[in-house]
Write a structure and sequence with these properties.
three-stranded antiparallel β-sheet, 11 helices, Arc Repressor Mutant, subunit A, alpha+beta, elongated, D-Maltodextrin-Binding Protein, domain 2
Length: 318
């Protein structure tokens, strides 16, 4: 595959002289990211029929099916996932060329990361925007469910996904990652901590045991249709607890920690600006370590934004 100006030549199934433009690659990327032709057309400022015809023409020229179309909507095919991986790399390199030689900033910069609810992921995202968020950008930070993190990276909606492995979930998660051609890269190992209110009855403890936590409500992030123990953000999720509360967002969880003397289990990395001064982290006794890391697609190369995000991330987790 070669790039010349705004035209790309592909080897393989294409006929001699066939070309693909950067604009066509942007069409594919936008449809894959939005998941619908209608929304993609709105973002691209073209009509829906024009976008549909452009995608059909590209598939015909490439002799592959990029998208599967059903009554439920549109999704990337297996061939389409491979194609999108190459398309993202070409678009990123084109942006670098424009940035270097035209001084245009490479157009609107795009980046998406999916993550479990980690404050350091947010801090690194802020640093990325400060460095690259100039006149035009389109960045996404998805604090979401574990299965969706894996799906986002597998379908290349997100370049990077952040999650953890431990003795309980590692075999299952790694099997899923392998089936989706994803790679896990360790960042750091954390000892489990309990997040509680500064006014919690156990707040003065230097270390807390599971037995001491039994009378208090246990707070965890709800995992939707995939609410398996293996997808939990919190460790010892198989333990039997009398009081369970599941939430979807960070603010609700912290409010309930304070209002109900609840607790949750996490990595122990805490940021007062994001988590508030009323939340503290206390070590938890007798639990396996959390191996926190990031996942990437095995067929993709990190963009400069992805590399910069990881550098910022490592700064906070060190």
């Amino acid at each position: 595959m070669k790039v010349s100006g705004t035209v790309i030549w592909f080897s393989g199934k294409r006929k001699a002289g066939d070309t693909v433009t950067l604009q066509q690659l942007k069409y594919v990327r936008t449809v894959a990211e939005t998941g619908t032709i209608t929304e993609a057309a709105e973002k691209l400022y073209i009509s829906q029929p024009s976008l549909t015809n452009a995608i059909h023409e590209l598939e015909k020229e490439m002799n592959i099916r990029i998208f599967n179309r059903t009554n439920k909507g549109i999704s990337l095919s297996r061939e389409g996932e491979d194609f999108l991986g190459y398309a993202r790399q070409v678009l990123e390199q084109a942006a670098i060329l424009e940035d270097k030689y035209k001084g245009s900033g490479g157009g609107k910069k795009q980046f998406c990361v999916s993550t479990q609810h980690y404050s350091f992921a947010v801090n690194a995202f802020v640093d990325l925007i400060k460095e690259y968020g100039q006149e035009e950008y389109d960045f996404s930070l998805r604090e979401t469910q574990t299965y969706e993190i894996i799906e986002d990276v597998a379908r290349m909606r997100s370049e990077i996904g952040l999650l953890f492995l431990n003795d309980f979930n590692e075999t299952v998660i790694r099997k899923i990652l392998k089936s989706r051609e994803l790679e896990f890269h360790p960042l750091f190992v954390a000892k489990p901590h309990v997040f509680i209110s500064r006014k919690h009855p156990l707040a003065d403890r230097e270390i807390i045991t599971n037995e001491e936590l039994m009378p208090y409500p246990y707070l965890s992030f709800e995992q939707g249709e995939h609410n398996s123990f293996y997808f939990s953000e919190e460790i010892f999720s198989v333990s039997e607890r009398k009081k369970n509360i599941r939430v979807r967002d960070r603010a609700t969880l912290f409010n309930l920690l304070i209002g109900l003397d609840g607790y949750t289990v996490c990595s122990g990395v805490i940021d007062r600006k994001l988590n508030g001064k009323d939340i503290i982290a206390v070590p938890l006794a007798e639990e396996s370590s959390m191996h926190i890391g990031y996942i990437t697609h095995g067929k993709g190369l990190l963009s400069r934004l992805g590399s910069s995000y990881l550098e910022a991330l490592k700064k906070y987790v060190e």
